[in-house]
Amino acid sequence: MLMGQVVGTVVSTRKEQELEGITLLLVRGVDLDGKLTSAVIVAADAVGAGVGELVLYAAGSSARQTELTRNKPVDHVVMAIVDEITVQGKSRFKKSDASVAG
After folding, report:
1. Whole-model pTM?
2. SS (H, E, C) the chain
3. Predicted local distance difference test score (pLDDT) of residue 73
4. CATH class of the domain at 2-97
5. Where are the domains of the chain?
C-alpha cells in the first residue's frame, strides 16, 4: 500500500462500460510529514474519500482486488481513509485535527 492525499477529482461522461459508477480521484503520494512526494495518479475510489483526505491506495494488480474494482481496467484504487498515524509512540497525524501539507 501507498499513502497519498486526494488532490482532486476526474469527471468522465464517456468511458468504458466497466468503469461506469466508479468515482475517479486524483491522488498524490505523501511522506509521514504530509509533504507531497510524487506525481499525480488517477485512482478508483472504493471507500468514498474526498478531496484533502489522507488515504491508502494500491497500485498494479493489487488495485483489482477490491469488490468494486475486481476485473476492472484500473491501475490504482483508494482503499482506506487514514484516521491516525503513530510512529515510535508519537502521533504524526490525526484526521480530527490535521490538515495535510500541500
Report:
1. 0.89
2. CEEEEEEEEECCCCCCHHHCCCCEEEEEEECCCCCEEEEEEEEEECCCCCCCCEEEEEEHHHHHCCCCCCCCCCCEEEEEECCEEEECCEEEEEHHHCCCCC
3. 93
4. mainly beta
5. 2-97
